[in-house]
Please model this.
Amino acid sequence: VEDIIVEAPEDGPVAPTGSYPPTAYALLLQDSSATVSGLTFRGESARVHAKGGSPAFEGLVLEDVGRPYGSGSKGGLNVSGGSRAAVRDSIFEGGFGIFVVDASTPLITGNTLRDGAGIGEDFGDGTIIRGNQISGAPYTAIAIYRPVRAVLIDGNSISDSPHGIWMEPSSGEGEQPLIRSNSITGCMTSILVSHGAAPTIAENTLTASTATGNRLSNGAGTALITDNDFEDNATAIGMSQTDAHIEGNTIQGGAAGVVILRGGTPTITGNAIEGAATVGVMVQLGASPTLTDNRICDNGKNLELDEGAEAVMEGNDICPDPTTPPAG
Model:
């Protein structure tokens, strides 16, 4: 049996995705529990819509379906209306990828997304994004732009995108999102948390970020950053206006280890920060961190405090700065 390829005209039937304008589609499942497998969808307007229900999409191929961010974005595979869709083991080449709205709660697992917008953006409690491979997203590989609590982002491999995972805003009290065991390499910023979001970020490997491995900014709340490995990032952890907890991380190489800018009272506890070319820990005026039981050694400069910066220091192992022998 030859592969079945599905295309659709842009002026064909349309369906809304949450509050977004209606878009053309090739397949619409509404309040359905059907399984769709083994089909290839091709072209921008060959979109797939799951509205409500709990359908399963398995082994699909979407080629240039949907439109990425920044150009009047339109989803490739769209999940809306509180749907509990499962998207498994499918391939997305170009186009948009997987667009979730209306606090829907999909299971998104085992998919490959290449050279198109990744997975976003309005998830409900219970969403699981696990074991996907995402590369070459033009803006963000996994984007969460609405308040969430019990969302799990686990075991994904992300590379070569401006932003690996972007999470905002605050989800209020209660259970918080968990970002765990992801491998993120070659992005500008591996994980960006802002505007009050307070996830737990644990056991990830963040490598070769050209700007920041983990950026916490604009009131990033009390995020917990624990047991992660940072290697050869321009800056491993950069933060401003946050009360985050940075605990038990290993930071190796790169240009800078932990850079604490204005505002906030973060706690930096039990981390190993070694081998940064310029500085291990930098505290700028206006920040008030607490540093406890960290090892900060073999950096270009191990600790740099701006004049007037306030930092509580206790039990740290801070090595002497290396000396440069005189010329000649």
